[in-house]
Amino acid sequence: MPLRPILLLLALLGLTLSHAQESETTEFQHGPRPPNSIFDPTSFLDPEIAVQIAEPLAKYRTNESIDVIVVILNTIGDAPPEHVARQFADAWCDPLLNCIVLHVPGRKDSPWIIPGGKIVREILKPEFIQQNVRDAKRRANLEPKEVGKIRAATTESADLLRIWMGATIHRGEVIKTEQFKMRTELEERHRRMKLLIPVALASIVLLTALAYITTSSLKKLGPRRFPTPHVIQRLGAPYAGGNDASIDLSPSHARHPR
């Protein structure tokens, strides 16, 4: 195959991939992730409060790989909070496990705690997640002010991710332990079968030999019964007897003188 078409094909493929990457990076309208994990374009939070919320988030992410981002928007229109939060999570968050604390000032049902990531989608049970999120949001809403609710929601979110991460790790360890046990049992069964096969074969050979020896011995001994008696007649008499009979074998002239 000529080299020139291959080079052209590779060039076209490279342009396609670079265009796809540029589309993915420029598609999200809010730009890169904020360094403090708080997206607050209208400065709803005071700088001091923002620092108080951001510092624990940075520690969670660095020390425990717990990824929580606070997003504060003036409005989300008619869009579902989950849809808006998913856009931020897909653009900025750890794909394994994350949580968006979404707040719209003035809305009574805000802030929302919206977890995401592979662990949430594929490992944990939806009803378990929903119950945990409802409980966390209920505790956060106990705060009287919006700022307090946001702070409480971030803490609750971090706690949820920590619990879920631990449960996932524990589940993985349990699965590995069970797999190790099953593999050990199978190996032990295989080892026993390897030992039993020669023993079984030896037993079959031994039993066959014993059966052959026993059969041969019985054939040599003959039948186990009394032999049939054979009657021999005496002097032509049909029956035995004549114990007092005698025979004179002297010449007849001696027995009968003239």
Descriptive notes:
The chain starts with a helix and ends with a helix. Helix content is 60%, strand content 7%. It contains seven helices and four strands. The chain has a four-stranded mixed beta sheet, sandwiched between helices. The chain is rod-shaped. It has a domain at 27-171: Diaminopimelate Epimerase, Chain A, domain 1 (Roll). It is an alpha/beta fold and 258 residues long.
Supply the key terms:
258 residues; alpha/beta; Diaminopimelate Epimerase, Chain A, domain 1; 4-stranded mixed β-sheet; 7 helices; 4 strands
Structural class: alpha/beta
Over all CA atoms, what is the radius of gyration? 51 Å
| Amino-to-carboxy terminus distance | 149 Å
Strand order of the largest sheet: 1-2-3-4
Number of strands: 4
Uncertain runs are: 19-26
CATH hierarchy, class of the domain at 27-171: Alpha Beta
With helices defined by DSSP (H or I, 4 residues minimum), what is the helix count?
7
Name the beta content range: 5-15%
Helix percent reads 55-70%
CATH topology of the domain at 27-171: Diaminopimelate Epimerase, Chain A, domain 1
Q: Assign an overall shape.
A: rod-shaped
Reported CATH architecture of the domain at 27-171: Roll
Query: Element order, helices and strands?
Result: HEHEHEEHHHH
Average pLDDT number: 78
